[in-house]
Amino acid sequence: MASTLEARDVDRIATLARLDLTPDERARFAAQLTDVLQYVEQISEIDTTGVVATSHPLWAEAAWRNDQPQPSLPTADALSNAPDANREAGLFRVPKVIGA
């Protein structure tokens, strides 16, 4: 792995992230990203032989409960606090967010 980034590397990353960088930002990010890569290189040198793979840093039993069917909240109760509900249709009305 390369331990230093060049300007063209930063430009490619900026393009992928759809960022417009000034020359000062490009230089600063090149230095910061190089530091990150060097740290990752240090971490990858650690011998992890015999270390059990984990998905979480703390050992814990699953805290899930068994599903137990229960009656749902009545529609009228669910809509009672909605600021702009269509109670006749049993629907919540929300602001348009797609194509707005």
Q: What is this structure's SSE topology?
A:
Blueprint: H1 7-16, H2 23-44, H3 75-79
Detailed description of the structure:
With 100 residues, the protein is mainly alpha-helical. The chain has a domain at 7-44: Histone, subunit A. It contains three helices and no strands. The chain has helices at 7-16, 23-44, 75-79. Helix 1 (7-16) crosses helix 2.
CATH architecture of the domain at 7-44: Orthogonal Bundle
Strand content: under 5%
Q: Order of helices and strands, N to C?
A: HHH
CATH class of the domain at 7-44: Mainly Alpha
State the low-pLDDT regions, or none. none
CATH-assigned fold name of the domain at 7-44: Histone, subunit A
Count, helices? 3
Percent helix: 25-40%
Radius of gyration computed on alpha carbons: 26 Å
Overall mean pLDDT: 87
Main sheet specs: none
Query: Structural class from helices and strands?
Result: mainly alpha
Termini separation (Å)?
Answer: 44 Å
The outline comes out as flat
Number of strands: 0
Write a short abstract of this structure.
With 100 residues, the chain is mostly helical. The protein contains three helices and no strands. Helix 1 packs across helix 2.
Features:
100 residues, mainly alpha, 0% strand, flat
